[in-house]
Write a structure and sequence with these properties.
This protein is mostly helical and 173 residues long. Helix content is 72%, strand content 0%.
């Protein structure tokens, strides 16, 4: 068995990535699902976005729609990534890297936009800052791993054409 064959498979540190991919959509659904469902069904959204109401601000509507859309995109992306991970598809490392990088950019933007709305609460609360730090640390660890790991290069090859495999210098045997 060649050195490359020993590295091939969802083993090693990739087990942690797999666990994270299982936990992420469950955690996101548990935390965000009820929040957005209630907001859009109990009248909160209308109260915040209707001119003339006490809590109206013109930025509420775009901010809330942006946040709900972003969370839906994360949820769907996590399911697609889980599929790519299990099938060992060659697009997984790049897709996962984008998935990890997005919150590093989007969370500060979201916080900035939220800070423009006078709401009596500091959008930079400890839980939000903790989530930002978690996102940055995850990106700093796993993005380089996706591009530098020999195990990742040996494992995520499915769907890659023979021509691309030969061009990248990997043997097909």
């Amino acid at each position: 068995m060649s050195y490359n064959e020993n590295l091939k498979g969802l083993n090693g540190w990739l087990v942690l990535v797999g666990i994270a991919l299982v936990i992420f959509p469950i955690r996101l659904g548990y935390l965000s699902g009820p929040l957005f469902y209630n907001m859009f069904t109990d009248g909160s959204f209308e109260y915040l976005t209707t001119p003339g109401t006490e809590s109206y601000h013109p930025l509420w509507k775009p901010l809330l729609i942006f946040e709900a859309s972003y969370n839906a995109l994360l949820f769907i992306s996590s399911l697609v990534l889980a599929y790519l991970f299990v099938t060992k598809h060659y697009l997984f490392p790049k897709g996962y890297s984008v998935f990890l990088f997005l919150p590093v950019v989007i969370l500060p933007l979201d916080l900035y936009l939220a800070s423009l709305i006078p709401m009596g609460e500091d959008p930079f609360d400890p839980a939000t800052l903790k989530e930002m730090v978690r996102s940055v640390i995850a990106a700093l660890i796993w993005i380089p791993y996706m591009f530098l790991s020999k195990r990742v290069k040996a494992t995520f090859v499915e769907g890659k054409s023979q021509k691309n495999t030969i061009e990248s210098g990997q043997e097909t045997n």
